[in-house]
Amino acid sequence: MGASEGAGATGDAAVLDWRTVVHRDFDVDLDEPGERSGAALDALLDDLGAAAAEAGCALVGEWAERLSRALAAGVPALLRRLSHSDPAVRRIVPVVLAYATAAEEDLVPGICAHLRTAAEPAVRLGLLLALGRCAEAPEARARLRRGLRGEPAEALGAALGLLLRPAAHGTGAWSGSAATRPLAPEDEEAVLGALTRCAGDAGPALAELAWCDPEWAGPPPSGPVDTVDSWLAPVPALRSRWLARLLAGPVDEDMDPAVARVLIAAADRLCAADPERYAPHATAVAALLAHPDPQVRRAAVLADCLTHYGSCLDALAAVVNGRAAAEQDRRSGASSRWCWHTRPPPRRTSSPGSARTCGPPPNRPSGSACCSRSAGARRLPRRGPGCGAGCAASRPRRSVPRSACCCARLRTAPARGPAAPPPGRSRPRTRRRCSGR
């Protein structure tokens, strides 16, 4: 326990919950999550008049020590800074309040009052997450449930407030499951839908807060997705459903490559923890082999989960065979169309009875020579480079190989349509999306 923790029992000073700082949100021996967040906290400390000589939780890192100095000013002083003219100060205040071990009557009414007036999405998101410290209180829980129906940033903050809870202060070993609380059945769907908004409109608001500092977590939209994924790690069942919803979108250029790589890593960790239960995510990862970005395809093919499941390998084969069949279909179709359009039209001689057109002669099997020429037929003009002399009718029969003849090429062109599987192998199964269950 730091010196400020012992001094926080008197007056308005709040005690820093350093366990939650270290185990749930940040790390031990952290100086700051980023220069932007560090500068904002320094500006708040200067405005509060917190002396640098005041002792804090220095044993667990400089960041925790600076947070404890801000909390030493008291919850009412921090709440007043929510009206500060500097937006950086307003956005760092909810981060500090999220670790205040103060009484519910000091936190809940003040936070709810400022939620009615705060206009910035980032500030509203942070206040709702901080309100989650007291989610067992009826007033706080009602406000969090109402926030699930708000705009995207407010809904994400309410979902995180209902899900996350302070780290346990017991004497036992730390358990990651202690960082989350079980959700009520009637709240699960709403919370899950709000959590998926981190990849959309709510992501930039979360990126404005120290929990998702771009220097710490990465820029949006991948940074917010990675931050929410780390918070969901203690609850794999909910994490799996959240991941399934984000992977259910179309695999095209609209899926951000950085977000796709974060989702691949999350699916890989889930499959490593329980291969049988989370097998459908491996198939979804294999589907990302069709992503237009090469880095996403490389991350998908290097994922360990691809080696565990036959269904995943089938999906991989379907992607590869589908591309090969499409390319073969494109080439064969272009070749057939060229031969058809460049073949000269039939011509008649002065004696119609003796004329022959380019094609198999009548009463002759198709395997025999394809082009014959009557004595009175005129020489056909030379055509494109693909046919050599254009047609067998332009030369004596013995000098034109069958492979150079337009008619032979038309007869031997591969059929249009997907490539058939080789004998003895079944057709690859189509790619399936996982249900998340």
Structure commentary:
By secondary structure, the chain is mainly α. The two termini are 43 Å apart. The longest helix has 33 residues, at 310-342. It has helices at 3-7, 18-25, 35-48, 62-71, 75-80, 87-97, 104-115, 121-131, 138-147, 152-163, 185-195, 203-207, 214-217, 222-232, 236-247, 257-273, 280-287, 294-301, 310-342, 406-412. The relative contact order is 0.07. Among the domains are: 1-167 and 184-213, no CATH class; 233-340. The radius of gyration is 35 Å and the shape is elongated. It is 49% helix and 0% strand.
Would you summarize the structure shown here?
The protein is mainly α. It has helices spanning 3-7, 18-25, 35-48, 62-71, 75-80, 87-97, 104-115, 121-131, 138-147, 152-163, 185-195, 203-207, 214-217, 222-232, 236-247, 257-273, 280-287, 294-301, 310-342, 406-412.
Q: What gyration radius follows from the Cα positions, in whole Å?
A: 35 Å
**Which structural class do you get from the secondary structure elements?**
mainly alpha
**Silhouette:** elongated
Order of helices and strands: HHHHHHHHHHHHHHHHHHHH
Sheet of most strands: none
Oligomer: single chain
- Give the terminus-to-terminus CA distance: 43 Å
Please state roughly what percent of the residues sit in beta strands, choosing from under 5%, 5-15%, 15-25%, 25-35%, 35-45% or over 45%: under 5%
Low-confidence stretches: 1-11, 170-175, 334-421, 423-437
Average pLDDT reading:
75
Number of helices: 20
